[in-house]
Amino acid sequence: MIFKKLIAMTPNVNMNRSFNSILNISTPLVGTHRGISQSSTKEIENTLSAFYSDENAKADFIECDVMITRDNQLILFHDENLNNTIIEQTNLEDIKRLVPSIITLADLLIKNLSENKIKLLNIELKTYKLTNEKKEVFTKELIELLTKHNLLENVMISSFDQSLLKKISIQPNKPCLALIYDKDQNLKIDSSLQKKLNVLCPHINSLSALKNLNLPKIPWEHSSENSILSTLSSEKDKVKWVKKHKIIGLTTNYVEKTAQLLRIISLR
């Protein structure tokens, strides 16, 4: 119980703690959504400069988007296409020619481990037109990378792709797993996957979906939204709202303002 309270009151969670250790905390952690900034000098999302900007300094965890390239490199990128180039069908070297700011997941892991106050990572796996065989490779490359850096217990792997999550779930030492779903999604969860999930990541407007799964939640919002801040601001009894929906974290575009509102809960 002391540890749970400590995490709830600490701006930066020590990554030496297991991600599973925060699944029952009383005060939600705040995560930066792709490193998105509201400042006038916006950094490019999914880059080191964005994740570690002054505006995102108060984030407890980093949410990033990870894709696999044609040559099996794990890079941080969100969209399927880049200047009419399909990321999943392009080699890393060619992608870097188009966008030099592109970084790999390894770059982020190394940077994070070098920080004085390292952060938890919510790694969202993006798939668009991957074959089943390529998803197997994605799983292998991801697990090997996390194992190499001794981070299997210190990250959460999230995705919309249930088949990919299932592949990860059967690994000998699986990381914390989360299913992402959107407000307009007609969702049916594979029964074998349900038992393997640790967290649900609904869009903030879909908190009431999947009531049959009694799992902690880390809601998110689209990059153009301020839905989390609006929802949190409108709730008169924030403590009751958090408990009702079992919210343990919020992935937001407004880290500082959201963190300020959540301090109301941590002081109670």
Report what the structure shows.
- The protein has one domain (26-264): Alpha-Beta Barrel (TIM Barrel).
- Helix content is 32%, strand content 17%.
- The protein contains ten helices and ten strands.
- Strands 1, 2, 3, 6, 7, 8, 9 and 10 form an eight-stranded mixed β-sheet that branches.
- Strand 7 (155-159), helix 6 and strand 8 form a beta-alpha-beta unit.
- The longest helix has 17 residues, at 132-148.
Number of strands: 10
What is the helix content?
25-40%
Give the overall shape, derived from the CA principal axes. Answer: globular
Number of helices: 10
CATH class: Alpha Beta
The CATH H-level superfamily is: Phosphatidylinositol (PI) phosphodiesterase
Radius of gyration: 18 Å
Largest beta-sheet characterization = 8 strands, mixed
Strand content: 15-25%
Number of structurally distinct domains: 1
User: Whole-Å distance between the termini?
Assistant: 15 Å
Low-pLDDT segments:
1-16
Could you say what the CATH architecture is? Alpha-Beta Barrel
- Which structural class best describes the helix and strand composition? alpha/beta
Query: Please, what is the average pLDDT?
Result: 88
CATH topology type: TIM Barrel
